[in-house]
Every structure is written in C-alpha cells, then in structure tokens.
Please model this.
Amino acid sequence: MSILINAYTVQGKYARAEELSRQTLEASRTMLGPENGVTLNLMDQLTAAYAGQAKYVQAEAVGSQILGTRRELAPEHAETLMSMSMLANVYTTEGKYAQAESLYGQIQETMEIPRWYRSIR
Model:
C-alpha cells in the first residue's frame, strides 16, 4: 500500500493518499504496533497527504507524534531526520520559522558530527 500512497502523493491526489494512509495506518497500528517502522512510515505519508492539502494543523500533529516516537527509538537514524525535515517544512509553511529553524539546525548538527566523535565527547 505504501507504494500506492506514494504514487497518489506524487500525482497530487492528496485526498486519496490521505484516505488510503488512514485506512492502512489503522490496520498497521493494530497488527504491527505503534512503534513499528511500517506504522511510522505510514504516519509520514499521512503527514505529507495533510500538508499537500494545506491541512497544516493535522500535519503538524501527526508529524510531532512521529518525531517523538522516532527520537525515542533512534534519535540519529536517517528516518528520524527525514521526519524532522518534514515537520520543519510544515512549520515553515505555517510561518513558524523559529520552530523550523530549530529542527533544521538539529538536522544539520546531527549530519555534520560523526557518530563516533559524538560518542567520545
């Protein structure tokens, strides 16, 4: 389903992507759990569908939830940084520049300092 949701999003069919994301997300939460990578990726897709429809309040709420979970599980993982970037983009669109700048700065810092170096600091 994830590929189909992405196809709808790329085509600008955000309402269809939202509908399919919500249906699939509900099943994923039940069968795989709320912290499963598939579930979190579906939440990212739902965030993108909301943002594409200018439903920024919903996009921010889901994006914040994903980021909180991903930070707990793997704060420096690439998917955590992608979720962070998506939420920062939503903040930028909403005009919440300070929050967006903070997230962008965290992404940059994480990407610039090698993991091995952070572990010896």
